[in-house]
Amino acid sequence: MNKNFSKRFLTSLILSSTFLLFIFTNKILWSYLLIVTSILSFFEFSNLIKKKFKKEKKKIFLSNILCFFYLIMFSYIGNDFYNTSPITLLLILLICISSDIGGYVIGKSIGGKKLTKISPNKTVSGSIGSFLFSFIPILIYIIIYKQTGNLKFYYEQISLLIPLCLFLSLICQLGDLFISYFKRQARVKDTGSLLPGHGGLLDRIDGIIFVIPSAFILQKLLY
User: Fold this and answer.
1) Degrees, nearest 5: CA angle 77-79-82
2) Which tens digits make up the pLDDT trace of 204-215?
3) pTM for the full model?
4) What is the pLDDT of residue 215?
5) Contact assessment for residue 173 and residue 161, using Cβ atoms and an 8 Å cutoff
6) Rg of the chain's alpha carbons, rounded to an integer?
7) Phi, psi of 86 (to 5 degrees)
8) What DSSP line would sit under the chain, residue for residue?
9) Which residue, among 149, 170, 152, has the nearest Cα to 215 in the 3D structure?
């Protein structure tokens, strides 16, 4: 477990740093990152679909089409968030990263009752850990705001940020379970082998690709 955790931690650190670095660099690099991420995710998901449906060509074709257009939407929304509010995008990514870390650390440390048959490794304690860790970005924003006073963050926003963190953590976990369902149906452990300790890229960002569009829809509904 310790060896796998070290690989997972290092991979998470590199991947998270890449996402955050590209946000603070420029729009073109962020756009390229979204495109490359979407392409790799498409091929990994397509591979799962082929293994799940095997020779059912119509289902494979339809699933690939839906996946293709969804990932186009994901890339478009990711760019839109960058253009309108990089700080909001940063907050969303930090919530996803924190939620994922909380689920893994608390789930492995405490263990306990299984959450669902879809993913045998998921536990109730891990799910609770994901919700709790999703609040960490709020604490970071408070500390930065108190030190600099430059961020557009006010304490009265906490009443909105708390349910936002819980909602996005829930979507992140559901996204994880969605991909886990297809992995279970395809009878594979990981979506690929690109990332040491994680498996495929989709194993690592399965929550993010569902959270960003969900956050976009929520933003449009509220504002």
Assistant:
1) 110
2) 888 999 999 999
3) 0.87
4) 92
5) no
6) 18
7) -60, -30
8) -HHHHHHHHHHHHHHHHHHHHHHHH-HHHHHHHHHHHHHHHHHHHHHHHHHHHTT-HHHHHHHHHHHHHHHHHHHHHHHHHHHH-HHHHHHHHHHHHHHHHHHHHHHHHH--SBS-SS-TT-BHHHHHHHHHHTTHHHHHHHHHHHHH--SS--GGGHHHHHHHHHHHHHHHHHHHHHHHHHHHHHT-S-S-SSBTTTBSHHHHHTTHHHHHHHHHHHHHHH-
9) 170
Q: Which of 3-12, 30-39, 114-123 has the highest mean pLDDT?
A: 30-39
In the block, which residue shows the tokens 């933003």? 219
Q: Are 47 and 192 in contact (CB under 8 A)?
A: yes
Distance in angstroms (rounded) separating the CA atoms of residues 123 and 126: 5
Query: What pLDDT sits at residue 38?
Result: 95
Tokens standing for 139? Answer: 């604490």
**pLDDT digits over 162-187, tens only?**
899 999 999 999 999 999 999 999 99
Q: How confident is the model at residue 89 (pLDDT cuts 50, 70, 90)?
A: confident
d(CA 44, CA 213): 20
pLDDT at 151 over 60: no
CA 93 to chain centre: 7
Interatomic CA distance for residues 148 and 16, integer angstroms: 24
Question: Is pLDDT of 8 > 70?
Answer: no
CB 191 within 8 Å of CB 45:
yes
What residues form DSSP beta bridges with 123? 114
